[in-house]
Amino acid sequence: NAGVTQTPKFQVLKTGQSMTLQCAQDMNHNSMYWYRQDPGMGLRLIYYSASEGTTDKGEVPNGYNVSRLNKREFSLRLESAAPSQTSVYFCASTPGRADSEAFFGQGTRLTVV
Amino acid sequence: GENVEQHPSTLSVQEGDSAVIKCTYSDSASNYFPWYKQELGKRPQLIIDIRSNVGEKKDQRIAVTLNKTAKHFSLHITETQPEDSAVYFCAASISHTDKLIFGTGTRLQVFP
Fold first, then answer.
1. Which of A23, A90, B47, B84 has its CA 20 to 30 A from that of B40?
2. Minimum Cα–Cα distance from A56: chain B residue
3. HSE (CB half, 13 Å, CA atoms) of A91?
4. Residues in chain B with pLDDT < 70?
């Protein structure tokens, strides 16, 4: 089992460019998440998906869109990147129970210049 | 909205000493409290968790305590080792969901 796999690992964008971060899990988990990690801010939830075809905003959704393509895949799109979106992005998944362990991907370090 | 506060933001200890990290949460309906360890450049990984029907849980050198009345929980690491150096995050569940609110993290440094 690969667990949760994110691509790419690193990316540099120019302001205004768009890109999609990909995430896939092979644990048959129902719930998937996108977080951003900034120094001193912890992990903040961007978007959440409880099942295929459903998505919900988290704490910091502005500037992002998501797609739960199927049970395995959950992508995060930046339509017009801004320097404030420079961050490390983590995808995670859980079985969907309220007290279950979250498994994280290896992260994507995104720099917007 | 829901909030989790974590202290201290940095903690330096001598190898063999104990380390304590504290968190408070705002949602009285939270019932799941995990702790994640993140080594430099790596992904966060679960090290221990506690549910609201339990006051304390231990796993070798690490333990977590929960005080539901005061809405705070703590991570205790005894006999610290250099490989314990990492950033530790506490989290609390958002009621009636499987979403988590994370604390801002504690950078623990263990000096040999």
1. A23
2. B99
3. 29
4. none
